[in-house]
Amino acid sequence: MISPINRLLREDDEQMETVAAILNQKPGSIPFVLFGPPGTGKTVTIVEAMQQLLLLNPDVRILACAPNNSAADLLAQKLTNLGRQARGHFTHIFIDEAGQGKEPEIMVPIKSIANDETNIILAGDNKQLGPVVHSQLAGNLGLRVSYLARIMDREIYDLKNGGSGVTIVKLVKNFRSHPSILQFSNTHFYNSELQPCGDAALTRSLENYEELPRKKFPVIFHGIIGKDDREASSPSFFNIDEATQVKKYCLSLISNRKNSIRAEDIGVITPYHAQRCKILDLLRKDFRMQDIKVGSVEEFQGQERRIIIMSTVRSNTNYVTSDIKRSLGFVANARRLNVAITRAQALLIVIGNPIVLSLDPLWRELLNYIHINGGWEGKQLDWNPEEAVSAEARFAEDRRTNAEREAEETIQRLKAMIVQRHEDSDLEIDFDDDDDDDEAAAFERPIIRESE
């Protein structure tokens, strides 16, 4: 019978099962996987396992690794009370956030230190961000797939066919998020197996926030038809309209003393560096908001905030020439979306252009979910949220067809206006001769405003 050092684990069967499985491993067992969805206490669990191993056998020597500084820092902070070094030969190697590390990185401690009797424990979530690989050659060779994801595809790690509790354990109790915030990711990424178990005093603390379109549903999508732009010297996008709206929400939250919200309670996630800079410039003008963290999804993985505000930035409505990838850029990434929306504990606010975001089927599902539950604000959607989401190609093609038709109608209206103007002034105009009529040639690339 295990007596947990962290008494909170006593109430979580999966966490205790994980610790027991790691303690009962024979030397040299195949790698053990802790599948830890957002907010399920993955790091707390492996720290408990390390402590229990040392209690069981003082000769155990543990190496704790992580593929990035923030994850390694979190491990170190939680292990400082052990007061001993893991020197020499390691009996156990724990790797946290293993789904985010590139396989060569993960192999450094395994191949250089482990021997036939070393036990490997991988903790991570293959539904969250994977390795960041910039080399096309490395990507083509498979390095965008983590070691964790690769081995989890094997039959021996199948949760439903004998692997559970032996080679793998999936944590299912979420201690982080309000049920309404958790529900979308739970449904689309985790087979609806996650159970909201967070402290209600925290997770339900903003159910009556005055800006909520519907009380008790602490999720907002604020539709804005802004303009994504770039500085001449940078390829990164920014959107001033969205940045301004982010500031408005931050100011609203900080100014309301009833909710006792500090700047440290708010996190702003945006996929583009230029937008991060614009938002920081706006927030720094008010000393009360200077400590609000603004960063990318990658910077927030493994973290949580009472309030998360997302600025999606992209607002390219030129559907005639732009495909989904070009219109949405980094935003059209399922795992990035999953990580972003699961950082929030009590309030999630998403700001973006619904017409552009809806090009991606998963985003369209999220927008439908928020709209149906009454969390919509701003620019209204132009599709039926009750309808099943159609295939990506079909929906995008329909949008392009509609855009082409609207563009042609706009061109014809403008041509008719100019014809009328020239008839009134007794002038002639020939739309077929682009070389002789610069004004007519301009219609080949019409500027379509949102109001049209």
From TrEMBL:
Record's catalysed reaction(s): ATP + H2O = ADP + phosphate + H(+)
Keyword Cell membrane appears in the UniProt entry: no
Coiled coil start-end: 386-420
Sorted UniProt keywords: ATP-binding, Coiled coil, Cytoplasm, Helicase, Hydrolase, Nucleotide-binding, RNA-binding, RNA-mediated gene silencing
Span of domain DNA2/NAM7 helicase-like C-terminal: 166-353
Name of the protein in question: RNA helicase
MF-aspect GO terms: ATP binding; hydrolase activity; RNA binding; RNA helicase activity
Protein's organism: Laccaria bicolor (strain S238N-H82 / ATCC MYA-4686) (Bicoloured deceiver)
Lineage: Eukaryota, Fungi, Dikarya, Basidiomycota, Agaricomycotina
Protein family per UniProt: Belongs to the DNA2/NAM7 helicase family. SDE3 subfamily.
Main location: cytoplasm
UniProt GO cellular component terms: cytoplasmic ribonucleoprotein granule
Keyword Cytoplasm: yes
EC number(s) from the headed UniProt entry: 3.6.4.13
GO terms classed as biological process: regulatory ncRNA-mediated gene silencing
Superkingdom field: Eukaryota
